[in-house]
Amino acid sequence: MKILRHDTVRIITTAIGAALLSVLVTASAHAQQPFTIGPVTAAPGTTASGTLTVSARPGDEGTTIPISIVHGTKSGPVLALTAGVHGQEYTPVIALQRLLKALDPKALTGTVILVHVANMPSYLARTIYYSPADGKNLNRVFPGRADGTLSERIALVLTRDVIERATHVVDLHCGDGNESLRPYTYWITTGAPAVAAAGKQMALAFGLDHIVEDRERPADPNASVYLSNTAITRGKPALTIESGGLARTDEESIAAIERGIAGLLRQLGMRPDGPAAVAQPIWIVRGEVLRSGGTGIFYPAVERGHTVAQGTLIGRVTDFHGRVLEEVRAPFAGEVLYVIGTPAISKGEPIAYVGSTTNHPQ
After folding, report:
1. Is pTM, for the whole model, over 0.85?
2. What CATH class does 35-267 carry?
3. 350 DSSP 8-state letter
4. pLDDT averaged per 10 residues, the chain (length 362)
5. N or C: which end of the chain has fewer CB within 10 A?
6. Domain with CATH 3.40.630.10 in the chain
7. Residues contacting 118, CB < 8 A, separation 6+
8. What CATH code is assigned to 287-358?
């Protein structure tokens, strides 16, 4: 047997060491790095939870936003999921709590950001639409302002710390505490064509069979108004979904959100398995929110999911002595996507949302 000289052994050992070092350096370059939002950091393959702070200003005490980061072991999409933008929309809040327990970061490619309650003042006060802190609708003040009211500062934190960090965004809603709603998705088409196309695939993957084509969102990133549109104006595909309503936490509505997120994770390549995309969607090609012309008591004449002809009575608004102030009728034939299910109504508030449907792919 040939015996290697000491110099030869040293050269081979050095070569092997250099090769191993090269492999380790290459592996390190492709490894997932820790993911940080504000004070919350998740190492690869772990989940971390904490809160973002919206600092106080004269006139309010500020607030906090509870978030979680589920950080996979492999790099990939960063999917942001937001719940609780409106105070009495509870099904998305419960769905994200369940998702936090169900997601395994070690089996995840990419990262999921969960915003558990975006609008804590409204959530704790159980208010619909508007924040008790400033009377503003959080989902109408994006991208927010550093010197603005509390809602505007919440919007700024969400824009800066969540939307800007994500590659894809889903804003999870349901009918507010006064709205009886059938599940549907908003697909926003006003962004760049590639972003709109990616959003369409996300909408199909989410699996809700009614998809509203929303063609009227602002295009200015500095006046994006809505949370999901803030993502789209920054080149990030996004959806708004609706499942549930009337301040309930029913199993069917919560499970629909869970299934939708599972389908989206599969479609984005973040998990290998998940529900298939919706096969035969109903496209809402025209929609109109009907608003009250008076303040008083609302008596609905239809239910969510009802098909209506043009001119069908949607409901009546009376004053507090029972005198009819107005009869609200369908402006065109379509389906009732939501209708107010509680008596209280104020002038200018929504009464119902009617959508015109088609089975034809768009």
Report:
1. yes
2. alpha beta
3. E
4. 44 43 39 94 98 95 98 98 98 98 98 98 97 98 98 98 98 98 96 96 98 95 98 98 98 98 98 96 96 98 98 98 98 98 97 86 51
5. N
6. 35-267
7. 65, 82, 83, 84, 85, 138, 154, 158, 227
8. 2.40.50.100
